[in-house]
Amino acid sequence: MDNVDRLGTHLTGVLCQLSESLEAAGLPFAVVGAAALLLHNVHLERATRDLDLAVSIAGGFGAIRPVLHGAGLSDTRIEHRFQTPDGDEIDVLPIDQGGKPPHEIQLAGGDRIRTVGLAEAITHAIPVDIGPRRVPVAPLSLLVANKLYAAASQIRPHDLEDACNAMETYEYEGTRRFDVDYDRHPQLTYETAGAFLAGFDSAAMMSIEASQLVDAATESLGRNPRLGDRYDRGEERLAFVLAFRRGLRAGNQGR
Length: 255
Fold this sequence. Notes:
This protein is α+β, with helices and mostly antiparallel strands. It has 11 helices and 9 strands. α6 runs antiparallel to α7 (159-169), α6 (140-153) packs across α10 and α10 (208-222) packs antiparallel against α11.
């Protein structure tokens, strides 16, 4: 299955059009969210019919809105959500790389969207062939970090499931899972080594502050009663979360 099949022909066309508009405006961006997971060949239990984009631009929504209007998108009642003429929903988060803190996005009413890893996702985006274009996509390890952070906030029901599906397959091919020092990390198994490597790799790309926020999120998830033997896959998911945290901390040692 190629990337067009993973997203679907229609969503691919929308993404290519937006990519062209953002590149013409000189705005670095990255595909994030469920669409990015699909482009990394992560299996999702649900279909996704929307796009999430992180865009590097100073000035927030006031600055990005004219660009999106020029690309044919219209506003919705939700400030960060836009709509195509066909009714597709596009969530766009403007990231001010020089803003403090970079993981908070100011909304018009004074509220803030708190997230981590999106500024780094733009900086470290991976070019992926999608139809006729190459589109920047967030690295998978940062997508996992972002999903775990969101899961701890319990904003969306699928965040933990998405993160665990990604960790389950992370670095499954190749030799990196075999290269993990299991003597130094006796809690790890081959099955959870991918989660450890995802944490380790995300630490190399995130700021110390962002790493600390994700670390705190994984600690919170570790206390979640749903990650226990009373719930389906609870113990398995807890093992992934703990392995990710070990990798994150290992990656941050000596920084």
